[in-house]
Amino acid sequence: MKLWQKITGILILIALSISAIGFWLNGMIDMKYLVDEHDIGIPAETYYDFITYISILLCFSIMLNIFLFISIWRKGK
Question: Does the global pTM surpass 0.85?
Fold first, then answer.
């Protein structure tokens, strides 16, 4: 891999990680202010579980991307 590809890949992985944390925080804030205060027909526990499962899937996706990036990085040597 060329140096610019390594730098671009690292920056993209950092951006993905920050956006995943942002999505998780946004979901928790939405749950606190929308689901608890307004009766929108979704039980709070179901919404909590949904946000948790989506966050876990995002973490697995980022870990898989990091693993693949490292394996491509080492293959280029």
Answer: no
What lies within 8 Å, CB to CB, of 28 at 6+ separation is 51
How far is C-alpha 37 from the geometric centre of its chain's CA atoms? 26
Q: Give the Cα separation of 54 and 46 in Å (integer).
A: 12
Within 8 A by CB and 6+ apart from 17, the residues are 62
Q: Is 77 exposed, middle or buried (0-12, 13-18, 19+ CB in 10 A)?
A: exposed
pLDDT in tens, 8-43: 999 999 999 999 888 888 888 877 777 666 666 767
Burial of 6: CB neighbours in 10 Å, binned 0-12, 13-18, 19+: middle
AA identity, residue 47:
Y
